Every structure is written in structure tokens, then in C-alpha cells.
Amino acid sequence: MSARLAASTLVAALGLLLACAAPAPAAPTSTPEPTETAPGAEPTASATLAPPSDAEVAAMLQAAVCWYDDPADAAECVPPDDEVRAVLASMAASGDERFVAPLVDMRYLDVGWRRAADDALEALTGERFEQGIEWYRWLVTARPRLPAGYVEWKAHLLSFADPAFEALLGTETTGDLRPELLIWTGTASGELPTLDAPPTTHASLQAYLDADDVVYGLQVGEVARAYPRRIIAWHGIVQDDLDGASVLVTFCGPCGGASAFAPAAAGQRLTFLDAGLAYDGRRLITDLETHSLWDPFSGRAIWGPLAIEDAMLPRIALHASTWARWSAEHPNSSVLSLDTGFVRDYTEAAWSTLGGTPSMPRFPLVEDVDERLAPDVEVVGVALGGQARAYPADELRARRVLLDTIDGAAIVLLADGPGAPVRVYASGPLTITALDSDMTAVGGDGLEGDRWFVLERALVSTLDGREYPSIAPAQGSWLAWSRAHPDTSVWGASP
Question: Which has the closest alpha carbon to 92: 107, 74, 81?
Fold first, then answer.
């Protein structure tokens, strides 16, 4: 017997039970005479149906999505037939909240069962929404109980859109991630094209960037490179090589910009692509080697084999700047070429139409926004030891120099005025008192010399070359930082 036939048989039996248990319609006759209850006898209870068992729930869910052993056979189930619609009606009649999240997933995917799913959801919840995404916003606070085996079932459902989702969701989550709030983005895994070893041109030869265009600057060893927002926003992922080192650059609109990481964890080099799934307001990325899901802002694995190991990609300092500032500070920098191999509108005005922003993410958030700052406020985040702190970027730029201590470690944050990148260094005994316009800092550490070159890798003494190393900060929206570090403090705020 096939898996679908077995499920259908069990569903038919359950449907018969539901029909038998339904109260009969009232007859249009006069009110019957009351009957006496024998002394000591219990009053007769109305017929009720026990909640379906886990096996019965699983059978109904499988029948609803054509649970074939070979996912390729699922095409036979589109569009849904009368049997599928009958299954959805049985879910509605059951009154069981375990069907709610699966029905929301079906309603959102919608391969022909929208009306039946809407009717079932209304019967189970009393709610009705015009857009499928509104159901996920409702799930955030409603928190209906999930059926046993829900993750496996959801992976099978999403295989209608892309068989790769079977592998991506094949491992149970860890921590607090809620699988019912993993949302299909409308694209297959990897459909959003990455830029792999993209072509570049010398800063002096490029002819498409304006002075105030936003770029994300990266320096590894002796090689500096700029990644214009107007290009990388269309791709989300850039996998590149600088001075012999592999780097991963991610762009996330709701995160407020880009991040950079070394693409390695658990002792292996990883290759990334867009996952086709979103969580907590932002699109996720996945690696081909382990099929783990990753947060593109924090670099943390949040689902799959490497999430179990609490893996995190090493962060690399990536500086948000304008093209004029970056090219002036790094005259030998390379920059991505417009000749990416893809046909896209790479004008600066076009990228903002691609999706959500920190103040209005396209996909729902899983909890309320931390209101200490507005969600779209740009912050520089520093995590040292067991502590994390957010610094409003505009305040740093206004101050130019800020000394602070995190988890007992002294640091200095430097920014050369409005719109400038913010650099962070482990300062130890060094006290910086001023930042000159020629990007040298003034201050002392008790030894000879009081001027320091402000380089990407370190603060370097102009006298003898001794160094204070840089710290790779995260730079993005308060929404993204506070999600990644819920226990963060905010510089300047009351404890």
C-alpha cells in the first residue's frame, strides 16, 4: 500500500467519525416532554469526539500534501483534487489547533487550496486574512500547538516549490527558533544569484560611482576592495578572495547594510547561497556543505548541523563609507565592476525596491522591537568576552573619539566626522585624545611618541611602529544588533 493510500484510508475513517459525532439538525417539532432521570443515574452527556491522535493528525497532514515516497510524484497533486479539499474540511471539523500552523504554510504556498485553507483556518481560529503573510504575523503571538513531525512535514510541503528544502529543513532546530515562523521567500534556494569572485576595476578607472554612493570597504593584508551597495544589494552574497584569503560579504536590507566574515566553521571551508527562507524579518543564507541555515548579520548558524554546534563565522571588519571617502583613503583600492554577468538595474536608486528595511521588514518579526532605540538607527556593535554594547553611529561621528571599556577591556572608537566609517581598536594603556583630518590620532601610552597612523589593521605608532590591533565591529541597524545580542547594553543609556 502506498503512503498516500494508507493516509487516505485513515483520513476517510476519521472523516466518518467526525460526521457521526456532529450533532443532528433540530427537527421542526414541538418541544418534547421532559423525562425523569432515574435516582442515582448520571445525566446523558452530548456526543463528543476525542481529539485525533498523533497518528491521525499525521495521516491527515500527509494526505493534504500528497505524501509520496518520491517527491517528484507530488506534481500529480497539483491542482488539489476533491480528496485534498475533503481532508482540509476534516481538519476544520476536528477543532484541533495542531492543524493551524500547517494550514498557514499551505495557505501561503497556495497551489490551488487557498479557499479551502481559508475556510479551515477560519473554522479553527475565527480569523480570516486577505494576505498569506498576515497569517504568519498572527502566528507570532497566537502560538498554536505544533503537530508531531511538523518540521519534516513542512520540508515536504516546501518541496513543491524546491526539492532542496527537504535537505534544508531535514534537521531539527536548536535553541529558541520557532519552525512555524520559517517563511518561504518566494524563490528557490540559490535562485537569488551570488557573486562569486566578481570582476573588479581599479578605483581610478571606474566611471559609474558618484562621490556620495554608499560602498562597503574591506582590507585584507595589502589588498583593499570596495563593494558598492547598488550592486551587492541585488545579490545578497559575495564570495571573494583578497590577498589569498577567502571572504564572505552579505547584504541584508532589514539589517541596515552589509557584513563580512571568514567563510569557515567547525574546521571546514563553507560555500554559501541564498536559502530561499526568511526568519525574524530577514532572508537567511545556507551552506552547501552541511545545509545549515545562517543569520546573514550575526554570522551565527541558527538551524541544522552547525547550529547544534553553535557555530559562528569569524567576523571581518567591513566599513560603510561613501565612495569619495573610501577612494581617498585607499587610492589603490579595487571596486566591483558593473560587468557582473547579470542583467540588473544597478543604479543607486533601484536597490531600495528589493525588500524590507529596518523600520518595515518584508517578513514578520518574531518578537517586539527593543524600544531603547528606533529600529532603523545605525549602530556600531562590539562584543567582547561575555558583554555586548551598541554605539549609535551618528553620535560616534559627532564625537570623533570615544574611549570605553567592555568586559574589562579598554577600547577606542574613531570616526572622522559625518558619514565616515567607524573603526574600533583594543587600546590597552593607550589614551587617544584627538583625531586629525589626515587620519592620524593623538594620544599616549606612557612610552615615547604621541601620534598614531589609523590603519585598518591597527593603530600604528609613527615613531617606532608599535601597534594596537583593530577589533571587527558589526555595523548595521539597531533592529539587527538587538536581535543578535538581546542582552546588549547601549552606550550612553541608563543601566
Answer: 107
CA dihedral of 257, 190, 309, 243, whole degrees rounded to 10? -60
Rounded to 5 degrees, φ, ψ at 297 are -90, -50
- Domains and their CATH numbers in the chain: 3-13+51-160 (no CATH), 195-353 (no CATH), 378-490 (2.102.10.10)
SS3 195: strand
Residue pLDDT tens, the chain, 495 long = 344 444 444 444 344 334 433 433 333 333 444 444 444 444 443 445 678 999 999 999 999 988 766 656 666 767 778 888 899 999 999 999 999 999 999 999 988 889 999 999 999 999 999 999 999 999 999 999 999 999 999 998 998 889 899 889 976 666 678 999 999 999 999 999 999 999 999 999 999 999 999 999 999 999 999 999 999 999 999 999 999 999 999 999 999 999 999 999 999 999 999 999 999 999 999 999 999 999 999 999 999 999 999 999 999 999 999 999 999 999 999 999 999 999 999 988 787 766 678 888 889 999 888 999 999 999 999 999 989 999 999 999 999 999 999 999 999 999 998 888 999 999 999 999 999 977 899 999 998 889 999 999 999 999 999 999 999 999 999 999 999 999 999 998 866
For residue 376 the three cell numbers come to: 532603523
C-alpha cell at 228: 558598492
Chain mean position to CA 341: 27
The amino acid at residue 440 is T
Task: Decide: helix, strand or coil at residue 331.
Answer: coil
Q: Is the dihedral of CA 281, 266, 316, 493 positive or negative?
A: positive
Residue count of the chain, please give it: 495
β-sheet with 293-294: strand ranges across: 183-184, 272-279, 282-287, 293-294, 301-303
